[in-house]
Design a protein that fits this description.
It contains four helices and no strands. By secondary structure, it is an all-alpha fold.
Length: 93
């Protein structure tokens, strides 16, 4: 009986911690999105263009040759983008 109680308490504590961390992560993601939006507004206001990362010439060459997977891989390495963002960017080239 004691073991069951401890197991339930452990499961409840783990669920509470998971929920708390999840809520905090969502709040941080919203905050990061707002900051990125504000930074974009500032850059637009001062007519500043974000510099292109070095190495995109290689990505363009790979995409032109039809080597999409390799282009995505290089794009991710050069920019630090996630897979979805890299795939969209390479397809847009």
């Amino acid at each position: 009986m004691t073991t069951l109680f401890l197991l339930l308490a452990l499961i409840g504590t783990a669920a509470w911690i998971t929920a708390t961390v999840s809520l905090r992560m969502k709040a941080l993601e919203r905050r990061a999105d707002r900051l990125e939006h504000r930074l974009g507004l500032v850059l637009d206001h001062f007519d500043i263009e974000e510099p292109e990362p070095a190495g995109l010439d290689e990505v363009r060459a790979l995409a032109r040759d039809g080597r999409t997977v390799e282009a995505i891989r290089v794009y991710r390495r050069v920019t630090g983008a996630d897979l979805r963002e890299a795939k969209r960017a390479v397809e847009a080239l």
